Amino acid sequence: MNEPILTTASGIPVDDNQNSLSAGPRGPLLLQDFHLIEKLQRFNRERIPERVVHAKGSGAFGTFTVTEDITALTKAKLFSEIGKKTETFLRFSTVGGERGSADTERDPRGFAMRFYTEEGNWDLVGNNTPVFFIKDAIKFPDFIHTQKRDPQSNLKSPNMMFDFWSKAPESLHQVTILFSERGTPDGYRHMHGFGSHTYSMVNAAGERVYVKWHIKTRQGVKNLSADEAGRLAGSDPDYAQRDLFNAIAAGNFPQWDVKLQVATEQQLVDWEARTGWNPFDVTKVWPHGDFPLRLVGVFELNRNPDNYHADVEQVAFSPANAVPGLGYSPDKMLQGRLFGYHDAALYRVGTNHQHLPVNAARCPVYNQQRDGEMVVGNGGAARNYATVVAAGLPDSGMGNGEPPLALSGPAGRYDGRGKEDDFTQAGNLFRLMTASEKLSLCNNLAGPLSQVDADILQRQLGHFDKADPAYGAGVRAALAARGANVA
């Protein structure tokens, strides 16, 4: 049966639902892409009042301390001297589950960090994985729908999940991580965090480099077996939240090393020419052999919130919150998040969510924004408009001293599917695993795959084969052990 023609909410036909409108193949994205904007806006307004994603969360306050000099890379004042401390807030979360879901479900974990700097709030909003399932924000609402509940049965559906993943081989790298032992971390203290996207830094001379953030736990990585995670989901669904709160209350403050991978634009151009991988593709990692980690500082959580709702539930992060010296990249998923997160906060928490203590900057704030619900202060007697400045000012690049970003190519929707390598890095990850880790991965995948339609199963098995023949063979063996027909 042919599906009806996809349209906007106003009935306008959509000719491409797979690729955002970008300035050249690499972006950035264009605001005129109304279909993308409508999808993200409509998606952000699907739930009242809990978050559409990352609904179940835990959080705490802490400090970030600079231990290494990176002033040659960035002019951001929070890195200005060794030993400097910045107040922080960190929210952990599961991604797909509702607010009452279990902490131990197989799911990525949100790892959202806020730095209350003297130049405003910097939000590093990432996950406990270095990659993601998709590379273009236009697919995000559809992907998350597959992780939620079937609209008819209201049940989680492996068929929905693997129907999407099997048709989006770019997801294989993240799927491999999700169904490995890393898919069920042992609490929040024993997992790494990642910025995942490629970000940028600008130094005092106006020179730009690109970076990837890695937040490495000092407590050691620990994961739960599938059986233990399932047992805890029934006996203690708040296991991770309880562990974090009690550890901080007892003075056992968890810490993470904050590290960076750094590359110049030319280094990324040369690396892409050698590997064929787009350095701004969030489904890919930068290998440490090519771009080694360098230490920046240490992050510590040392204070529980006095009120969960006031801080953990009302905190509103946005990767668009970047202070001078820190910036973005042409990553298409990041570009969509720059809009989507702030828009979600406007809807979920309110027009003036930045007035709430957990969201308020710790430095002076001055703008012409006024009125709206739950306003605090409202600017007093200050005027509510900005005076027009006379012409003749020098060009300011991208603002905050960041140099202009060169763009190229005609605006259009560029489809890289079938032309890009979605399998090598997933295969590399599989080959790094021990025999027991590979067995666990294959067994974890066999559970939901034994419940999907035959055509979806065969399509997904084909992706495993392309990553590594042993990967496909291992999943087939695990399926056969469950009595599934894999012929």
SSE topology string: EHEEEEHHHEEEHHEHEHEHEHHHH
* Tertiary shape: globular
Cα-atom Rg, whole angstroms? 23 Å
Indicate the CATH class of the largest domain.
Mainly Beta
Number of helices: 13
Low-confidence stretches: none
Question: What topology emerges from the helices and strands here?
Answer:
Blueprint: E1 21-23, H1 34-44, E2 57-66, E3 85-94, E4 109-117, E5 120-127, H2 140-147, H3 158-167, H4 172-178, E6 193-194, E7 199-202, E8 208-217, H5 226-235, H6 239-249, E9 255-263, H7 265-275, E10 294-303, H8 308-313, E11 326-327, H9 332-348, E12 411-413, H10 424-432, H11 435-449, H12 454-467, H13 469-481
Antiparallel strand pairs: 1-12, 2-3, 2-10, 3-4, 4-5, 6-8, 7-8, 7-11, 8-9, 9-10
